[in-house]
Each structure stands twice: as structure tokens, then as C-alpha cells.
Amino acid sequence: MSRSTADWSRTALLVRESRGHWVGEAAAAVHAAGLRAVLLAPPMPEEEAAALSEVVDGVVAVDDVHDLGTLLVAVHETTGGARPAGMMTGSDGLVAVVAQAAEALGVARCSAEVFTVARNKHAVRRVLTEAGLPGPRFALIGDAEEATAVADHVGLPAIVKPVNGAGSNLVRTVTTVTELADAYRLLATRLPESTDPRYHRSVSGRAGEPELDPTRVFLVEGLLRGPEYAIDVLVRDGEVEPVELLDKPLIDEHKFELALSCPPLGLTTERAKVVTDAVCEAIRALGLDNTVAHVEVIDDEVAGPTIVEINAGRPAGSIMPLLAKLRTGVDVFAEATSLALGTPPPKREAPSLPIQLGMLILYPRESGRLVAVHGVDEVAELPEVIDVVTTLTPGELVNDDQEVYGVNLVVAGFTDHDDLATLYDEAAKKVRFELEETS
């Protein structure tokens, strides 16, 4: 359909920064709602555009999808000035700018300022603290020389992280002032070299507050101790609905999460409600509405359920939404699409596998350009494995500083965390990521 004949009031715009399986999920939901789906994305090889043309109704190249002005010009040129049915993204780094673009086009379902604040981890901490919700002591650090003062205020051990990071990129645990100063220097060296565009733009927060340079100013938080959980939350016209709570029984200091399971093993119904209630309070405090959010929380041994981070505007990454769909029948991507576009809620199916399920995450352990992933067929033959999803494709750059979900497994047939750990070790031995060095 050409631009002149397209009914843009019946067309949803999807905006992507890099490859992601969410595009197919969102496009299917858009089509199910009776709308067209047009994808705006950075220039890509012809073969990739051709493959996407089987999924969406059009692909538009945008030189810089992270720049609001460039994005709005591309939309105007594509639609001829007509207003689309809506605009959405599943790309973490684009949530705020797409919300701003949707607001400028008059199709926003939630204030863009809310998403802007949500992208600033320091601003989120302040909002939650002012709402009276528990949280660790926290501070910004803008120079290695500030390490002593920051450590005195926050306490040690502590966590150091980018103010707008994702995927645990360059998150470090520190136990001494020297380690805190070293962590500052590491982030201040690595982030300016990052190819991720989010680190090369100032980070806004609440109205009237100064912007932060994400390559120079970082967030330091006191270390929380206790079991960690993850949950996707739907917010529709002010009503907050938790979908499915997962626990994170296997965590290491480098990748943070190796496996998840649902429902959380050993967690009582009463305690699960306390955890999810805390998540819902945080969502309301932040002011999110008509959107989805992925929330991570630690049930701290002193403070109780404490929010670790809120990823607003998108569901969980990888195949976590698949676990929820199998166990509950809730299609989080379809729900997120309807919330972003204002279409009727999708019909929910009965749970297809309402049993104990787990997700194993296998990572490349080095940096480089992916050549191939070996052993996927072998790991798929393990009796506990229900499904295997490889999210990386040859040619992609892999950075060991960040959690890059390589191969993801849906598993069943385990009874406790030890079983899950044994299964993880067995699967990890079978999969190998072949990488080549990059200059």
C-alpha cells in the first residue's frame, strides 16, 4: 500500500533500534487488532528488510531512531502528515524517545515525562523514596575522588551502575572505598567507548532537575540482601495487574541472572502477595499508566520487598514472557501492544502448561563478533528442555560487559534450586559460542 492510499489511522508504527524478536510479537498483535504495522528502524541489509517484510506491512529506514527530531521527520514523511493509530517500541533504549514522539503526534497513552523519569535510575530512586517505599541508601558519584564521601553516605558493600543502563551493563559490586573508586574509573573509561547510543546522550529526569552525563555520573546504591524476583506488570486505566512472579535462584557476580523459575520455589502465597503488592505500589508512585513494565525486586532481609529497577514501557527480555504465557495464558506482548495503541484487550487463553517452569540463560563469556552457536541441537534433546530460543544471529557484536542472552531454554521436571543448577551446568557444557575478535 502506498503512502497516498494508506489509512494511517489504522496503522501502528513500531520503532526498533536493533534486532529483536519483539517485532514479530508486536506485529502479530497489531494485525490481530485489525491494524497495519509499519516498522521504523535504522538502515539495514536488503535481506533483513526482505525478511521483515514477511512480518510487517512496511519498513522505513531512519538514520537516527534515538533522535526525536529525526524520528518525527521520518514519521511525517512516511504518513504525509497523517496521524497514525499509535506508536510503540519494545527496544529498551527507545522507550523514552518513542513516548515523546507519540506525545508530539497526539497518540500517547501515558505522559512522556513518566517514561523519561523511569529511564533515570537515580530519579526513580528519589520518586520511590519520597513515596515512602523502602529502598537502599543511594548517591551519585561524578569523580573517583568522591568515593570516600559516597561510601560514607551509602555504606559498603554497594552496587555501582550506569544511571540509564540495562542488561546489567558494567554493574559492579564493591566492598571498599578503593574498589568504589576503581569501579568509577572503569565505567568512566568503558562507557564513552560503548556503541550503545543511550550512553552518548544526556539523561533527563524530573522537570527542573539538571541532566546527567551517563558517561561521567553513576549511581551508587547500598547492597540489598535477600531472594530476588522479577515480574511483568500491566497497567490499564489506572488498574495495576501483576502477571507472573519469577524467582532468580541462580545469580553470579558477573551476569547476575542465570536462571529463573515460576512460580518461585519455596515462596508462600502470603509472601508472594507482599512482594507483588510492593511492586504495584512502586508502579503507582511512578505514575505509569496504559503500559507494561518489567520490575525486579529483592525481598531484603531488613527492609522487606525493595525495588531494584523498573523497566517501564516494555515487557521482560528474552523468553520470560513465554513462561508467563504458558503458565497463565496472558500474552504480555499482545497486552503491551493493546495498551500502547488503545485497542481492546486481547482475548486470553487458558494456561497451556500450568506447571513448575524454568528458564535457563546461556551467555557468551567473551566479547567479539558472533560466528556461530554450537550445540543447540544437543541441548534441545535434554529431557527437561521444552523449548530452545537463540536470540543472537551470526554477525552480531557481543560485549561481555553486558548480559547478552545468547541461548534461552524453557525447562520443566526440576523439583528445587539444586536440580535447576545441575540442569544449568549440563546445558552450559553443550553450548559453545564461536566469536571472532573485532578491531
From TrEMBL:
Gene3D superfamilies for the chain: 3.40.50.20, ATP-grasp fold, B domain
Chain ranges of the ATP-grasp domain: 125-341
Keywords for the protein's UniProt record, in alphabetical order: ATP-binding, Ligase, Nucleotide-binding
Coiled coil residues, start to end: none
Record's keyword annotation contains GTP-binding: no
Entry's Gene Ontology molecular function annotations: ATP binding; ligase activity; metal ion binding
InterPro entries registered for this protein in UniProt: ATP-dep_AA_Ligase, ATP-grasp, LAL_C2
A Pfam family that the UniProt record links to this protein: LAL_C2
PANTHER family listed in its UniProt record: ATP-GRASP ENZYME FSQD (PTHR43585:SF2), FUMIPYRROLE BIOSYNTHESIS PROTEIN C (PTHR43585)
Protein name: Biotin carboxylase
Provenance organism: Saccharomonospora cyanea NA-134
